[in-house]
Design goal:
The chain contains 5 helices and 3 strands; from the N terminus they run αβαββααα. It is mainly alpha-helical and 133 residues long. Helix 1 crosses helix 4.
């Protein structure tokens, strides 16, 4: 008897996993994440892709938009809160292609994007990940 195909995880499931990942970040860093907006969209917009030099909507799994904590000032408040966006369809494809647990994949992307909130570059985060192995 064939098993029925598993339903794709919903936007709500992605959001729940992402919120759990953000909640797992310890203090004192966690206090700087309270104003970060978390969004789950199917794909990045053309503008979001252009902002990171990408053209293929399947290549971007997450994005941080905002001013890093180190550049924020009470004297120069930003009009918009910082945003971490997760892109559901590219994440689902990566999940299918890699076999990595979905929770672990979403957690990795959320923590990576939260790292940008603290001013870490992609190179900084890759170096941290490599040193932890």
């Amino acid at each position: 008897m064939e098993s029925e195909p598993q339903a794709e995880p919903s936007t709500q499931t992605f959001e729940r996993i992402a919120r759990e990942a953000l909640a797992s970040i310890p203090e004192p860093m966690a206090q700087h994440l309270t104003d970060v907006v978390l969004k789950v969209e199917d794909f990045a917009t053309g503008e979001q892709l252009n902002s990171v030099g990408l053209y293929d909507k399947w290549q971007l799994t997450g994005l941080y938009e905002g001013r890093p904590v180190s550049e924020q000032s009470i004297w120069d408040p930003s009009d918009l809160p910082p945003v971490i966006s997760l892109f559901r369809r590219p994440l689902l494809r990566e999940w299918e292609q890699t076999g990595v647990e979905l929770d672990a994949l979403i957690r990795h992307v959320v923590i990576h994007e939260a790292g940008h909130h603290f001013g870490f570059s992609d190179d900084d985060m890759h170096a941290l990940e490599d040193s932890a192995d």
